[in-house]
Amino acid sequence: MTMRRKVFTFVAICVLAQSSRATDDQAQNLAELSALCQLIKLTDADMSALPKLEPGAGEIATLEVLNMTLAETSWRAKYPNKGASDLGEKAACQGHNNQPQCEAEFKKWAHLNIQATTKETTSPESKIPNGLLTTPSASAARITLAELLAEATALAEEFNTKYKPDLENLEQQIRSDLNKAAYNQEQLKDANGQRCKISATGGNTEVLCALPAVGEALCATVTCVCSKFGDTQDTDVCGTGATPTLTANDATSHKTGYDTIHEVCNKYPAEKLSAELIESKIAAIKSMFKTKGNGGNMAMVLGIIGTTHQCKKVASTACADFTKSSPFKSGETPEAIAWEVNLRKAVAKLKKADEAAIIQKKTNAVLRSYTKRAEAIVKRLLLEKPPASEIHPAVAQQQHCNIHKTNATCTENNCKWDSTTEDKGEHCKPKTETVTTAAGTGDEKDGDKKDECTAVEEKDCDTKKCDWNAEKKQCKVKEGAVVISAVIKAPLLLSFFF
């Protein structure tokens, strides 16, 4: 009894399996369905690896601020160095021939001066002493930096004009092209009867399933390749789950029919988008075109065609007619396949974006090198010894020492290395023992040493070399010391010239 039950069950399974394959055996357009669905699914492709527009690191802005830092004091004095609602542009440009342009330029320089001043305030060592700004070294640095700024600006403008548009909103542009190819609309209206936009009119398959109508969108093509009617053309050419039954031979019925196929195409996996991927899928679908005809008339179709040279309501057939895209007869002009045109637009944009990304990388690298060169120019200038008349010797010494980043160079340049554990870094400081010099000279005077005239009480002040200032309660160098030194050295100086 048990053996009979097992045999009966096995036979029942075989019968059910055979009956379930009956309609699927009619699915002769499965390959075409798969190729078309893969093209449609490109609208959901992974675009994370597409080239992107990289925001600059502000190299031009940095160069402009450095350029302002090197500007002569008289030039910077024309512009405010603190932010305000009124920067004074209207007053400065009053009566100018082109006042709007004058005001715009004034505001630009004012903002740069404010940025330069802010940088100098927060980092006093970055301030170039006024005395250095009038030296030949500063003039040379100013010219070199201006040239760097001009070259950098020209390079950035060339990229912004020629290549930046190829990277801006790239993903949005590509999706628009792919949606146009798939659905004949730049943004999918994901609702029944609205996904596939078919504008062609006509009441027969010969019109709706031939160019130009069938080429409007991939959804129009796949509907022609996979649909059936309830009477003569009643086979499931794309399988039971992907062969819609059209109630009428018109655009509205084709739109509704596509909804069934859309569910199938939507199950395909999303792929990582590239120009090569799109091109390979175009080539795959076009390789399935086949030639068929009768009575001297030939047709180039996708899918199954009957004994005629047109896609008609014929039993066990369903096809899309692309004959007009190949002008094989004398005097004919090829008919464009709209979905192919839109796919190739996306390909062209992707290739241009790849090229622009390479240029972008090179441009940014050059701009960074310009910025480093400009910063090096300013650092070299700060190494120059400020004139003796510089009124900020402590700041100048701080600037001088901050340039050196190793223990060896720090100590060689009369600075102190303020670290016992590191030989490199930001540890170079001015020596605490400083020498007071007479105004207008760089020479050390008798009685000028700090330890000889720094007594805090009058009884300790050396009256031979120093004077006690009762009002300030300070021990100071005698005023006569400078005069005496000058008198003593005058004959020596004259003997040098004569």
Automatic annotation (TrEMBL):
Quick check: keyword Cell membrane in the entry?
A: yes
Q: Which residues form the signal peptide?
A: 1-22
Name the InterPro entries on file: Trypano_VSG_B_N_dom (IPR025932), Variant_surf_glycoprt_trypan_C (IPR019609)
Domain Trypanosome variant surface glycoprotein B-type N-terminal stretches: 11-365
Chief location bin: membrane
The keyword Glycoprotein is annotated on this UniProt entry:
yes
- Positions of the region Disordered? 420-449
Query: Start and end of every Trypanosome variant surface glycoprotein C-terminal domain?
Result: 401-476
Q: One GO CC annotation, please? A: plasma membrane
Q: What does this protein do?
A: VSG forms a coat on the surface of the parasite. The trypanosome evades the immune response of the host by expressing a series of antigenically distinct VSGs from an estimated 1000 VSG genes.
Q: What is this protein called?
A: Variant surface glycoprotein
